[in-house]
Amino acid sequence: MKFRWFRNFLKGCSLTAALFVFQACYGTPTGIYEPIEKNFSFEVFNADGTQALSNAKIYAKCSNNGHTQTDSTTTGANGRATISFTFPERLNPIFEFTVKAEGFVQKDTAISYTAETDDTLKIYLQKK
Questions:
Q1: Cα(42)–Cα(98) distance, rounded to whole angstroms?
Q2: Which of 38, 60, 93, 98 is in Cβ range 3.0-4.6 Å of 64 for a Cys bridge?
Q3: Which residues does 7 contact at the CB level (< 8 Å), separation at least 6?
Q4: pLDDT level of residue 91 (50, 70, 90 thresholds)
């Protein structure tokens, strides 16, 4: 009878250790998805790809489950620019881009989320 309390104490310690290991491996559930930052790099050229277009305006919109983020940027002298969006993972957002440059036809495109870390979008604009 003396060892009954000791046996119960060991059972409690074993259960506590098992729960500690479970939480260490799997963590506590948060109920929301972890945020992901998605970077898009742009390279804007004329139609035949021989000239990089500077000062091209890029307007971007990220839509997922009723939440929308917008951003814009301008290409540099080398025709390059970058836009970043942060969104919850596993929500499959749609990214929409509009590119405008003086003397060129506006171009619109939409892409869905891919798991690749960085994407470079090469955009070729036709003269007006």
A1: 11
A2: 93
A3: none
A4: low
Quick check: is 73 in a domain?
yes
What pLDDT is attached to residue 31?
Answer: 62
Query: How far does CA 108 lie from the centroid of its chain?
Result: 20
Sheet holding 35-46, edge to edge: 80-88, 35-46, 118-125
Copy the structure tokens of residue 49: 């790809």
For residue 97, tell me if it sits in a domain.
yes
CA distance 101 to 44: 9
Domain count of the fold of the chain? 1
The residue to which tokens 């090469």 are assigned: 122
Please tell me whether residue 79 adopts helix, strand or coil conformation. coil
Which uninterrupted H or E stretch holds 94?
A: strand 94-100
